[in-house]
Amino acid sequence: MPNNRAVSAQKKIDVAYVAQLARIDLSEEELKTFETQLSQILDYVEMLSRVDISGVPETPIDPHLPTNVLRADEPRPSLDRALALALAPQASGHLWVTPKVVES
Amino acid sequence: MNAAHWTLSDLRRALRAGALTPSDAVEQLLQRIREHDSKINGYLHLNEEAARRAAAQADPNLPLGGIPIAIKDNINVAGEPCTCASKILRGYQAPYDATVITLLKRAGAIPLGRTNLDEFAMGSSTENSSVTTTKNPWDLQRVPGGSSGGSAAVVAGDLAIAALGSDTGGSIRQPAAFCGCVGLKPTYGRVSRYGLVAFASSLDQIGPLTKTVEDAALLLQVLAAPDVMDNTSRPQPVPDYQAALHQDISGLKVGVPREFFTEGLEPCVKRAVREAIDWFRDQGAIVVDLSLPHTPYAVAVYYIIATAEASVNLARFDGVRYGYRAPSPRDILDLYLRTREEGFGPEVKRRIILGTYVLSSGYYDAYYNRAQKVRYLLRRDFEEAFKRCDILLTPTSPTTAFKIGEKNQHPLAMYLADVFTISVNLAGIPGLSLPCGFSPEGLPIGLQILGPHFQEARILAAGHAYEKAHPWVRRRPTTLGDGQ
In chain B, positions 367-406, which contact chain A (CB-CB < 8 Å)? Predict the structure, then answer.
């Protein structure tokens, strides 16, 4: 797959494919509505392709942002397990219960 | 007079003088909320018992001792809901305090009530809330702005002394402008984001919505601090914001960016902001006409970067560990697909789809990478401007509050409403909105003051000087009782 696929003039997102990636089960109606709306938005953002970015570094770092904020690798108190489990839609002992993950 | 009508500063003075107790203040506020909030639906949840307990123990000698503060419903307060106005977080009860809440409590403040917002802070009108529609206290047919519409509405309607909001593309400043109150977005990194439900991690900031600029300074004093739990927070020294309010503004260089005064600006907004600029000039400020040339690209840059970041941040809402879970899932994939389909509202889904797309293989360079480069240019525009001026003055929004339902059919039209606030988040600089007049229909108009990174003291001082000479704050909406 090319790393810089040319963006076609008529902007259309394959909404069903992207929705699958985003793990959202869109309805038929939503697929149609979003395709139209997102197409309009993509047409709008197309203006960025006309900006002269020749002077911009390849990785444009904001100098105001901190870098490499680290701490010593020492254990610290964390979220109380009981409080966390209390939020579980379904729990068993100290485990969250989910539908099966592995194919049988 | 019910203490709900007071400013934070006045309430603090009264509490310290013993004129009333924190319990009195909380009861008076709760009474006013009970009587009037149903007209505007600002609050999603009221924790009366917790507030009463805190009030009984409050020490008025602490910096915010006994002061009730309304909290936007995307900031975690331990033991309380944090719905983000989304179905997907119904039933969630926060197991921890956000750092800003820890700081407020340590300063003696009382979190009281959780306010409505656009779902996951995505919106400019609070119409995207899955729970209720908040109304602008100045005109109940109009929106309060968004996404911190609930916080702005309750402050403007005197159903709160002050509130916390969050701002990713204007979500504190624009509702402040629409509702006629003060809203401050601090410099990115000034206030910890730990405990704020993340929307766009390189843009989000928590900030105060208040009745006066001084109140915003008092709140910011408590909120501004580096935090080990947020590694984007900066250890910049925190000045005395209240003392800094009284800086002399004569000689201040005030930049006026041309791109913020083009067509599309409502005439009354243009007039009110021009008059404010003239006032600064009359005080001895030097007005500098300048350009922020990449302004027309800001909305496009934002809707690529913010949606990309949101698609990542909202991946955690999957029905597994907390919140809504779709019933009877066949398998784990079905759980994800249906939980998120049923749990998210349309605007959230739209933005997740767009964000996923612009990050996907084959499109990352054309969209996300390019947007980050244009962002660099936007930030550089501000850096160049601040070489020639100390602050920038602009309208906060091109229009006054629009009618409920007017813009929510057209996502792009709604996005364009943020044009004056959005580049501020992209650059990371601080921005203050305060009232500068009213439209012929009686709707508030917001003036936006921008400064360089970590210059909140300067923009607060400029705002305070303007506000002292223009007591717009004395005019209150009449839809919520007679001011008693």
Answer: 367, 370-377, 379
